[in-house]
Amino acid sequence: MRYILTFLVLVSLMSNAQDISLLQQLNGRYDYLAIGNTMNQFENGANGVCVINTESSATLTINDSSQIIAAYLYWAGSGSGDFNVMLNDIEITAERTFSDSLDATREFFAAFADVSDQIINTGTGNYTLSQLDLTDAIGPYCSSGTNFAGWAIVVVYENDVLPLNQVNIYDGLQSVPDELTITLNNLNVLDNEGAKIGFVAWEGDSALAVNESLRINGNVIGNPPLNPSTNAFNGTNSFTGNQDLYNMDIDVYDLQNNIEIGDQSAEISLTSGQDFVMINNVITVLNSQLPEATIAINAISRDCFSRVVNLNYTVFNSNSTDVLPAFTPIAFYIEDELVATSETQNNIPIGGSETYSISVMVPENSPNTANVIASVDDNGFGEGTVTESNELNNIDEAPYELLLPAIITEALDVELCDSGQAVFLDITQQEIDVIGNQSNVEVAYYLTLEDAEASTNAILNPSDLEITESLQTIFYSVFSISDPTCAVTSSFQVSVVEPPVPVAIQDVTSCDFENANSVAFNFNAIQMQIESDNPNAVVSFYTSLEDAEQEENAIGLNPTFQTETLPRTVYVNITNPSFENCSVIETFRVTTENCDIDVPTGFSPNGDQTNDTFTIAGLDNFYENYELRIYNRWGTLVYKGNKNTADWDGFSNQPSIGKKSLPVGTYFYWLQLDPEKTDTKVGWVYLTR
């Protein structure tokens, strides 16, 4: 079944020529005829009159018992082409064009148009082709006798008295000299009676007959006296007997004695030793009784979540001349893989058809959307069992789409921070992950499972949905675009998380030491204050609002914060431990002040609850690492203390003396405020009781 009537061109001709190939194949009680006319006033020749007409006429006569089936118009001439003409004042535009050339300066054109409707409607009568104007084009061609223009109409008709024939119409534009060989393959000659072959050719000259011939299967044929076997291209029309078709030929020849019953091919050879001739079309009429199997997929259905597609299809035996036998095989393919086979059940008569159904399983490795191909007269290996009139029209294909919506990745739960205002969420953000690479599905969102399962009341604004509950379930449905009822449903939750409790933080002040390069601040008390209101909160300190919002470049305390820039604002990010995107930002300022201490000149440790200890005002507040030493008037160390020891109460705390009450008198102090600094103070104090 994988063959067709074809031409095999054995000789390379002009570079621009288009090979003769099959245009149309018609089967039935058919025959053909052709009419046409030249635009040349005389046969062209060297130094001839260089004029040409723009219109000419011809008469078509069809028997009353015949019915026109198809009609094709060809026109041609010298030059690059005129592709808009008029036929009986109806505008005709070329549907296909052809070109050929003798050399770089002499090119030729031909054109084709299907005029079946016009010829069928008009029928018998006079036909005039006009506005084929090559007046300005032919000048360079006249001196070499290659100026021409003309037209022809090939008419296929039906008549009940005719035998069952196959009419093949081939066209292109190929030229001789020297020799053109065409092979017709896959013929099935059942009866050679009435077999014929015809041509439409351009630019032939009756005066040039050097080695001109037409051979069929090696036999020289002719139609004398109109078409001598030695002058095939001589400006004649075999149908009308016209002999003044200057520089064009419409000829037909009898094949009966040149082809045999049972032949499966025929070889046609055209030769011309001098005359430049272009073949535009070839027509064969052969008695043929063959079926013509074609197939059409009428409908495809499928069920949700199934890889089975149900096909309704029709096998035709149209354009045939014989019955299509029962049990003609049928094969079905997806992605070049055979997926099912069947066969016709009954003999299908000429022009008849039968409709069938079949269920096909789409392979797992096949895409969910592709084409299914139905091929009649196909045994599943690309081979036919029935000889047909046309072996290249046995298939039809149609797209299928499996209804297999799926959730590729489940949507994740979402947490939002309660800002104290209306909370909105784009619930479609995970859609790409949910549907993956599926191209035939969409996603709809719902507030209830009942709505999702019924595909009703879908959320209209899923990209900007207001969340009205602290814990809200969103249902979503992945559905097939072709059938929205075929869907799979799931859900995710949206939680609105309370932000941390805002905390009013007092500014922090530190001592401003003379000549200090930087000032240290301890934020432990602030962190404890925040955590008392927000247990387990994550607390971080930053020097800019942008860093606090982005949670980047947090201050390293270790254990204090050192800064040279004062005063400055410190930003505190307080984050909910269960949702890192839910936080509040507080601020406080760090500044310095004069931290001079007030050293008393005396104290009275007599137990009256007044001035009982040597207390230096501001020392514990501003100096974390101070050291205080007390000496008596003989220089003996009697007391040593710091932030972690009690104030001097008039008793010795040195092991060399023991803990005992010291006498009234003048004592001397040595006070180092910071061991890393040079801030040391000395003075005296009077102890009285």
Total strands: the figure is 42
Q: At the first level of CATH, what is the class of the largest domain?
A: Mainly Beta
Mean pLDDT: 89
The helicity comes to: under 10%
Structural class by sheet pairing and helices:
mainly beta
Strand order of the largest sheet: 1-11-18-13-16
Low-confidence stretches: 1-15
Number of helices: 7
> How many structural domains are formed by the residues?
5
**Structural shape:** elongated
Work out the oligomeric state of the chains in this entry.
single chain
**Terminal Cα separation, in Å?**
132 Å
Radius of gyration, Cα only, in angstroms? 53 Å
CATH architecture of the largest domain: Sandwich
General description of the model:
The chain has 689 residues and is mainly beta. The protein folds into 5 domains: 18-287, Sandwich (Jelly Rolls); 294-401, Immunoglobulins (Immunoglobulin-like, Sandwich); 414-497, Immunoglobulin-like (Sandwich), CATH 2.60.40; 508-593, Immunoglobulin-like, CATH 2.60.40; 602-687, Immunoglobulin-like (Sandwich). Helices cover 6% and strands 42% of the residues. The protein contains 7 helices and 42 strands. The strands form 11 sheets. A 5-stranded antiparallel β-sheet has the order 1-11-18-13-16, with no helix packed on it. A 5-stranded antiparallel β-sheet has the order 2-10-4-8-7, covered by helices on one side. The chain has a 5-stranded mixed β-sheet with strand order 38-42-41-39-40, with no helix packed on it. Strand 30 (471-480) and strand 31 form a beta hairpin. The longest helix is centred in the last third of the chain and has 10 residues, at 524-533. It is elongated, with a radius of gyration of 53 Å.
